[in-house]
Amino acid sequence: MLNAIPLIRLCQLTTTVAVSFAMLAAIKLDSAQAFSLTTFKISGNFAPVADNSSIGLPVSLANGSFNGTYTVDADQLPSSDFVNLTSWTINLVSNNTVLQTLSNTLAGNTAYIQENILAFTDAGLLTGNNQNMYSLELYFNRNFTGVGSTKNGIFLDNSDLGNVPTFGGNQIIFAKSQPVPEPQNFGGIGVVIAMGLWLKNKQKKLQK
């Protein structure tokens, strides 16, 4: 009976350690699943002159810029198939004023990565169901995974199909895409620290 109590304590400690490691494994698994969705920052500049015969928005965007973010399952990249973005917001800017925003808020809007192409397209461009008929296409190097820069791309405006007095295009003279830094998993770190302190105190008690 003299060894019974230490043995029980040892079993309790072993069980607790096993449960703790299982908790950490679950935290690690959840983090890995979350990190497959990666958010990228995108920015770039329009050419100083719009394409010939352009009117409206493409002309206003001359010497302008664009910026925003998009989210995609990076585990699927690179791919020769269409990999749809899960969310995106791209602001078209001139003289520090946002003239137009491309986003996933309107049902039917599409954005994808295929090979070296990153594209954002308003639903109206494909369906004619609204008057905003824009697309922004960027052409990166092969095997694009969301990180890179390019001097090749175009903004297209077909809004005249919806009886809006704007039409044409503007070339992209520079664009870059880079991942947004992921926040640290402070919850998981806190669990590890708490477990370490608890195990240390438990070991001291067993040694008495």
From TrEMBL:
It comes from the Bacteria. Residues 1-25 form the signal peptide. Keywords: Signal. This is PEP-CTERM protein-sorting domain-containing protein. It comes from Anabaenopsis circularis NIES-21.
